[in-house]
Amino acid sequence: MVCNSHDDRAPEVQQLRDELAVLRAEVSTLRQSNEDLQIALETTAAHGDCIEAELQSSNLRLQELLQHYKRQQQQLQTVLEMLSRQKQDLELVLAVTVEHGQVLEEELLTANRQLKEQVSQHQNAEAKLQSLMQVLSREKHDLENVLRLIIEHGDAVAEHWYDRAVEADRQAQVDDLTQLANRRRFDAYLQVQVQEMARRGASLALLMVDIDAFKLYNDCCGHVAGDRCLQRVAQAMEQAARNPGDLVARYGGEEFAIVLPHTTAPQAMIVAQRVRNAIETLDLYHPQSPVGPRVTVSIGIAGVVPARGDAAECEALLLSADRALYRAKHRGRNRAELAAAEGGDGPGAIAADGP
Length: 355
Fold this sequence. Notes:
By secondary structure, the protein is an alpha+beta fold. The protein has 9 helices and 6 strands. Among the domains are: 73 residues; 172 residues, Reverse transcriptase/Diguanylate cyclase domain (Alpha-Beta Plaits), CATH 3.30.70. Helix 9 links the parallel strand 4 and strand 5. It is rod-shaped, with a radius of gyration of 66 Å. The C terminus is likely disordered.
């Protein structure tokens, strides 16, 4: 019975032993933990100041980090508010765009067309500019050739153009029909001589010559014959004016003028006589002349010693000679009259059969 009872408790004993072993292990573990804790406490106590300093430093860093996070949060909040406003603006723009989309599209199309037109205009302008550059290049080449020729033949070219300039100037001062000085040349020459004679204190005479009844000559003989008559009368007058400074000019139509520097009125009367005789010697038939059967001329003579040499003295001399011519024609034509002559056929007149 005893043995059986002992055998029945054996498992319990074993269980107790096992539990006791477990408790011993736990006690050993607790002892070890206690020892570790004791060591930790001793270490903590030994290094408490360092740990506290590290904790304070960590706390400061944590506070700074929190401040940094707060600032970032504020900045983020500002950005969010700005984005919110931009979102509202974009929504407003989108609403306007949707509302006025067709108008904007038309404006964009119009701007696109205008841009295309401008591009086309620029292209055309560029093409024209290119063409112009080509033309200018060719002209530059031609000018370079001309310049090279001028350099090579400069003297001949200069002489050629000088001759042309002289000829052009001569033609500008010469009457085409009679080859006498024209009215322009006469006016300039008379002004120069008035000034020159005033400077020298010398005499200057002027003859105004008119072909008698020249209109009737043209009517009955024709304009071709009239032109030949003017040419021959011009040649005769040039031969009669012999001094180098004398100028014979066609004043206009059938009227001529002769400027006689260094010539007094009596000396001019002699020249007028030579002119009348030279024209009568031509023996040009004039069937309608009231004077006679031949072409004749009437002459007005004026002489002066210029004092000032200005335009007023030129005009006065012309007026005096013209009045003398009118008097010669009024008194029967084919005669010469001095501007200073008074009365009838006195010393101031040369009649058709004068001396």
